[in-house]
Write a structure and sequence with these properties.
single chain; 7-stranded mixed beta sheet; Acetyltransferase; 3 helices; Trimer_LpxA-like_sf; 20% helix; transferase; UDP N-Acetylglucosamine Acyltransferase, domain 1; alpha/beta
């Protein structure tokens, strides 16, 4: 079995001089063509899911509903469960991998960011990646941002506008920047 790009780079620092950047740029260009098609024409739900299936490289269940426009830089590192709803203008920076389990709700203008730049100024154009996992029945509110390496627990809610920098346990509501637990869900 071939090693995927995500497996090659996750958790590692990638300097701009690394040859893997050629593959990253190739995948971005390939994805950009499909995104232009997806976001600039009217499509039926079935057509939308067919194009999204091509973008992510696996069939999307017919229970998935994605409102357009939808944005992603690679696409091939996204996994969607069943009954997932993604609202308009969501941005998935998915090089590190994004997994949405069944019944996840993504609000409008949500940012899921799996990539960070390196801290040292001389290497700042380099990257590091960590996956995001949003577990079953979680809800990410409008304009919230989830940063690299975060797992959102089952049934948890991320309030609108929150910035999530750390893992969120099951059955809680988090609010703020950075997001903090404000309530347990029973």
């Amino acid at each position: 079995m071939a090693v995927t790009l995500r497996e090659q780079i996750n958790g590692k620092e990638i300097k701009i001089s690394d040859p893997v950047f050629d593959e990253i740029h190739r995948l971005q260009a390939e994805n950009d063509e499909r995104l232009v098609d997806l976001n600039t024409k009217f499509h039926s739900k079935q057509e939308t899911n067919q194009i999204l299936s091509a973008i992510i490289g696996e069939n999307i269940d017919n229970t998935v509903n994605v409102m357009l426009p939808f944005h992603t830089d690679f696409g091939k590192h996204i996994t969607l469960g069943k009954h997932v709803f993604i609202n308009r203008n969501a941005m998935f920076v998915d090089l590190g991998g994004i997994t949405l389990d069944d019944y996840v709700l993504i609000g409008p203008r949500v940012n899921l960011i799996t990539v960070n730049h390196l801290i040292e100024p001389s290497n700042r154009r380099g990257l590091s990646t960590k996956p995001i996992h949003i577990k079953k029945n979680a809800w990410i509110g409008a304009a919230a941002t989830v940063l690299p390496g975060v797992t959102i627990g089952e049934n948890s809610i991320i309030a609108a506008g929150s910035i999530v920098t750390k893992d969120v346990p099951d059955n809680v509501i988090v609010v703020g920047a950075p997001a903090k637990i404000t309530k347990k869900i029973h």
